[in-house]
Amino acid sequence: MIRRNNESPVPLIWAHLRSPNARELLYSILFLLLVAGYLVRTHLLFVSRASSELQAELKKIKSLMIPSYMIELRKLLDGYPTSELNSFSG
Questions:
Q1: 1 and 9 in contact (C-beta within 8 Å)?
Q2: What does the pLDDT look like over 29-78, one tens digit per residue?
Q3: Domain assignment present for 56
């Protein structure tokens, strides 16, 4: 780009942006950004919904596991007299 003495490059850029091809390019970029934003939003909603469903399922599993764990722990503890357990606590 050859500039004359005091001519700034900004008017040349605006002159190029006024052309129909540059407008089409800008509109295409804007459209692609909107589509990309929509796809990201949709994906985030899907991941959020799947995550909340998974969390609910894990809560159900956890509520089922805790009683059986406590039953097994109680069986193990019942096998030892309480006086021996207290001797470990110092």
A1: yes
A2: 999 999 999 999 999 999 999 999 999 888 888 777 777 777 877 887 78
A3: yes
Structural domain range at position 29: 10-81
Q: What count of other Cβ atoms lies within 10 Å of the Cβ of residue 22?
A: 14
pLDDT for 12 equals 64
User: In the chain, what is the greatest distance between 2 CA atoms, to the nearest angstrom?
Assistant: 100
Q: How many domains does the chain have?
A: 1
Query: What confidence score (pLDDT) does residue 34 get?
Result: 97
Instruction: With beta carbons less than 8 A apart as the criterion, state whether 22 and 16 touch.
Output: yes
Residues in the chain: 90
Q: How far apart are the first and last CA of the chain?
A: 86
**How high is the pLDDT of residue 80?**
76
CB 13 within 8 A of CB 4: no
The first and second tokens of residue 27, run together, are 């509109």
